[in-house]
Amino acid sequence: MGAIIAVLDKKGENATKKAVEMLRILSSKKAEAFELASSSMVEIKKTVDALQNVNMDSHMAAGQVFSKILSSDKLQIARLENATMLLDGRIYLPNGETFDIESFAKKSRQNYEEIAQHLIKEVEGDFTFVIAENTRFVAGRDPIGSQPLYYGENKNLAALASERKALWKIEIERTESFPPGHSAIIDKNGFRFKLAKTLVYSAPKQITMQTAAEKLRKLLQKSTRKRLLDLKEVAVAFSGGLDSSIIAVLAENAGANVTLIHASLADQPETQHAKQAAEELNLPIQVYQYNEKDVENVLPNVLWLIEEPDAIKTSIGVPFYWIAEKAAEKGFKVMLAGQGADELFGGYKRYVDSYILHGVEKTRREIFNDIAKLYEANLERDFKICNYHGVELRLPFATTGIVEFATALPLKLKLEPKATTLRKLVLRRAAENLGLPNFVVNKPKKAIQYTTGVSSILKKIAKRNHSTVKEYLQNLFQSTWKKRMLHE
After folding, report:
1. Tens digit of each residue's pLDDT (9 = 90 or more) over 122-160
2. Domains of the chain, CATH where assigned
3. Where are the alpha helices (DSSP H) in 14-63?
């Protein structure tokens, strides 16, 4: 796990130094190896400085920053005929075997575009990859978009990277998220994308609440077990709400030693609820409480990681940063979380408002669009935060099978057209089937930025600085980036 980059000089000049610049800004204290590759050459060093004098003598260069999460982890490199393939992320094989990219590529016996398409269509996991050929790259991203990947170009360069900052470092200012479930050809003409596997909107399939809830329980159980096959212990980001409680119970049922981690501002009612939920679930919980000064101190780091001064993403990113930080301090290498459940099963109040005002079809479309953009709204932020702390984030809800199941459900199994509906109805029934306590099953949905108190504190800090939250974060974002980009 770590980061991946690729850069192509459109004018045919040597791209090696640009690639090293990109790797340098993505390096971290947790990094154990740095890789630089062309179609015919691979260099692996323990430090990025050791790559400084490497010369690929190529207008194309790809690379990786590698951090070992599990003892069995290794750099995923495949030396192919006139090409080199790099993969970053985690592949979930049925019986927990270790995925080997070289064996996969050679067994495929296809051209490199077909290998890319086959990998995206057939393999379950959170991953990105690059294949460096003589005159072009072939790249791709998993169908959910769990593993971050961005791309961009200017008049001289075309490049992609796991974080936007690596593109900004080489003066590619306009960046976009690489579309999930797609492969791309990158050459001197820029980017050409090809769909491999993505979410498709369809009419709802008729199914009873009882049948849907039981099928959902089994899907979640299977997904969680896959994400725990190589683990004896795991942390769970825990609010005490429905989603994180389901994940915690499923992880324990799968045989893992589970520790719940909860972070919040001091004196928030949700903390007491989280403690009560942990007690009812009979699981150990670590509770960490913070204050206004702690929020102010962590903001520059959070903005550096999430790479945009968005108020909602920042309000969510701050407590998630603390949770990932504490998981790392406690020695956990992997953390589970419940991201995706609200989009998949109608957890937001605005869905109810849409249902009442506009009816079933428009609301289903709205939910579908949010699921399709889940990677931009939530996953990229959280994966980058965890990666910084050397903790691998795994999300049992964010799987192709569960996404396809959820999008095909009738809206009435998710929520009702009335203001008092609890929402996520089928998920609550699945939680009942799992034996979760009623006060967790029936707990109303509240957004983390409000329950942790961070949103209110941001308003207070901004007001003290005679700004709106938007203005304050924008100014802090710009000053943080100016300082760190120069330093890096």
Report:
1. 899 999 999 999 999 999 999 999 999 999 999 999 999
2. 2-195 (3.60.20.10), 209-471 (3.40.50.620)
3. 16-26
